[in-house]
Amino acid sequence: MRKNENELVAKIIDDPVFSWVMEQDDNCCKLLQAILPELNITRVEFETQKRLKFHPEKRGTILDILAYDQKGRVYDIELQVLQNKFLAQRIRYYFSMIDQNLLMSGGKYRDLPETYVIFILPNDPYDQDEKYYEFAFQQLKRKNPLVLDTKQHAIILNASGSIGEVTPRLQGFFDLIHDKISTKDEFIEKLNREVKKFGTDPGRRKELMDYQMRLDDEREFGKELGREQEEINAIQKLIKITRQLKASDDFILKQLIANYGDDFSKEELQEFIKKNK
User: Which superkingdom (predicted)?
Assistant: First the structure.
């Protein structure tokens, strides 16, 4: 059931809330400092909801935050609510779009800067309970692998993790994602105040309502896909069992129509039989 406007509560993990909060003061810079303290970031320029599209007929994308620091390093920060089973491919795609954006602006491939694609997730996509995953290209089948320095860094942050070390400020941000304020860090308290400020602004609440409706639609679509896949698996299993009993294709089709004819056409069921010989 969808929430009405009076039931809405703004949270940092909500896309419009996160973008707006990061636009305030130096919040974006401080978050990057918390994630990557070793880089000594002192200043960033950034855009929120940055659209990257290079041809009217080609697929584009929108980055939550695209930032550049004082040394020219590039950061894409994505705060995600829904898990994505193709997370690795999505990260690869984002790297390619960022590189293309730089090259289309007149840069040369030899000058491509250090680039960080950072996904912040409420839950662990790998079920390893680690807080901080970082990936890079390296040689395979070697005891001491060489690293292929593409200057690309893929970082996945798990706000529910308990293993590994992150800065206290980043841990405070993780807690904020889960609606907990367990730190006296003034930056985290400031973010929390700004989240609440967003939630009390009538215009912003309308934006939040629209976002929640889109999110509900995506979740429902995901459930429908899941239910459809369960039925497909059941159909394939039934075909396999009846084939083991030496049943004819006509008999199998009648069984499928009787059990799944409301959800799949006769032609679709015939195609299942054809593909599962």
Answer: Bacteria
Region of poorest pLDDT, from 31-45, 61-75, 165-179, 215-229:
215-229
In a domain, 214, yes or no: no
Per the structure, the count of domains in the chain is 2
- The pLDDT, as a whole number, for residue 1 is 43
Q: What strand order describes the sheet that includes 152-158?
A: 44-52, 61-69, 74-79, 115-121, 152-158, 132-135
Residue 114's domain comprises 5-200
Model confidence band, residue 245 (pLDDT cutoffs 50, 70, 90) = confident
Whether residue 207 lies inside any domain: the answer is: no
Q: Do both 29 and 146 map to the same domain?
A: yes
95 and 24 inside one domain: yes
| Pair 58, 174 in one domain | yes
- For the segment 185-194, the average pLDDT, to the nearest whole number, is 93
b (16+ CB within 10 A) / e for 170-197: bbbbbbbbeeeeebebebbeebbebbee
Segment 111-139 shows an average pLDDT of 94
Nearest to 79 by CA among 186, 178, 223: 178
